[in-house]
Write a structure and sequence with these properties.
Structural class: mainly beta
CATH topology of the largest domain: Pectate Lyase C-like
Distance between the termini: 83 Å
CATH architecture of the largest domain: 3 Solenoid
Shape: globular
Oligomer: single chain
CATH class of the largest domain: Mainly Beta
Radius of gyration: 25 Å
Length: about 425
């Protein structure tokens, strides 16, 4: 009897062990890679790192939940293909190191988080190549964080032909649930483009670009605390700080609906240097071909040399609140304008709102647009302490102070400071702190 009991107990323990291994998988491994290591046998330990990240992917050495730690060095081109992981799998850079890639593609893969990598083509553009980092539509739950991306280090001597022949886009993603944040992107064609639903684009900097700074074409997306600045006009493209358009089943622009997108606390700046070569007439937020439904555009600072400050053509329940939209100089084209064209057809549920904005001019067309608390101002000095020096605070004598209408939903300003602060809410993106 005792033997049977022992066998039963042993069998039960084996079953429980198997069940627990499924519920609580083994602790994820740290795997080390160093391109300077020998190509011989390695076990992936810090003392015996793998030589090639690409070979590890190709040979299925990396398992779900692993963390791959890269030593400094050159890694060439990287393709993560058909790697759908059951849990987040990470690629990071060792402290104080720089892991440099020429190009990166993610295809048919899921649950990857890549952090701190450098991607640069060094001006050596492959035939037909457009992107430094590309994530395809068959991928999902991809995080790109803390990257440094650039075509070349220095563009001071670039001609228009150099821009057109060498500049690649920064990040192009068609994936759902892409998370793109804290990246520094410079000297590129287009900055960041997301086509997939549930994308997050947050706290990135796009500096020196010849296409659009940001593009967002996916439902249920967030663009927050990004900086887009210094546009170069080197071809007939009309550049936007942020651009969107809707597409229907046939793929034609303007035939569908883009829903539930938030664009808040972003800075779009035409240029920092009045002597910048090839300076463009940057459009701020350009949303021309669409129906845009349930969008929120708030607490953004937009300083451009164009009449399209914020332009929403085809608005349905779009809320444009507490933005500062100004022409960066006093010469044509301009003045910088907030323009909304409503397609609500008078339905209260689809009504849009333009409230507590500062702009050179505000234009509203169509039925069902509520408006209050907006101010039209011509002078940059009335809304910025010193925009030339990067001081975007509100001057103490600004007309915008305390002149907004109460809005219980608006609790912070562009800087994240509380609002209101004072006798009443301030108009525009910045709240004077008392």
């Amino acid at each position: 009897m005792m033997a049977h009991t022992l066998k039963f107990t042993a069998s039960l323990l084996v079953c429980l062990s198997a069940m627990l291994s499924v519920i609580f998988p083994a602790t994820a491994r740290d795997i080390y890679v160093d391109p300077k290591a020998s190509e011989g046998a390695a076990d992936g330990s810090e003392a015996s790192p793998w030589h090639s990240l690409q070979s590890m992917l190709d040979e299925d050495i990396i398992q779900a939940g692993d963390r791959v730690v890269l030593a400094g060095g050159a890694y060439g081109r990287l393709v993560i293909q058909n790697k759908e992981m059951s849990e987040i799998t990470s690629v990071v850079v060792a402290d104080g190191q720089q892991a440099v890639f020429e190009n990166m593609e993610i295809k048919g893969s899921a649950n990857w988080a890549l952090t701190g990598l450098t991607v640069t083509s060094n001006g050596m553009r492959e035939p037909g190549e457009r992107y430094h980092v590309r994530i395809d539509k068959n991928s999902s739950h991809i995080k790109i964080e803390g990257f440094t991306i650039y075509t070349v280090e220095d563009i001071s001597d670039w001609s228009a032909d150099d821009w057109n022949e060498k500049a690649l886009d920064g990040i192009f993603s068609e994936a759902e649930y892409a998370d793109i944040r804290n990246n520094k992107i410079r000297n590129v064609n287009f900055g960041i483009s997301t086509l997939g639903k549930h994308s997050v684009v947050a706290k990135n900097e796009v500096k020196n670009f010849s296409g659009d700074g940001l593009r967002g074409l996916g439902d249920h997306s967030l663009f927050e605390e990004n900086v887009v600045k210094n546009c170069y006009q080197v071809n007939p493209n009309h550049s936007d700080g942020f651009q969107s358009w809707s597409t229907g089943a046939d793929g034609r622009p303007g035939t569908g609906v883009i829903k539930d997108v938030t664009f808040r606390r972003n800075l779009i700046l035409n240029f920092e240097d009045f002597n910048q070569p090839y300076v463009c007439k940057l459009e701020g937020i350009g949303m021309f071909d669409g129906v845009y439904e349930d969008w929120t555009i708030e607490n953004n600072i937009i300083a451009v040399d164009n009449w399209h400050g914020i332009s929403v053509f085809g608005a349905r329940n779009v809320r444009i609140k507490n933005n500062t939209v100004m022409d960066i100089d006093y010469f044509p084209p301009g003045p910088a304008t907030i323009t909304i064209i409503s397609v609500s057809e008078g339905d209260p549920e689809d009504a849009s709102l333009v409230a507590n904005n500062v702009a050179n001019e505000i234009k509203i067309e169509g039925e069902g647009v509520e408006r209050f608390g907006n101010i039209e101002i011509d002078d940059l000095d009335d809304v910025f302490v010193d925009i030339d020096d990067g001081d975007l605070r509100l001057p103490e004598d600004s007309e915008a102070i305390d002149n907004g209408e109460p809005d219980p939903e608006m609790k912070v300003d562009y800087f994240g400071n509380p609002r209101p602060s004072g006798k009443g809410p301030d108009v525009g993106a910045v709240e004077m702190q008392q």
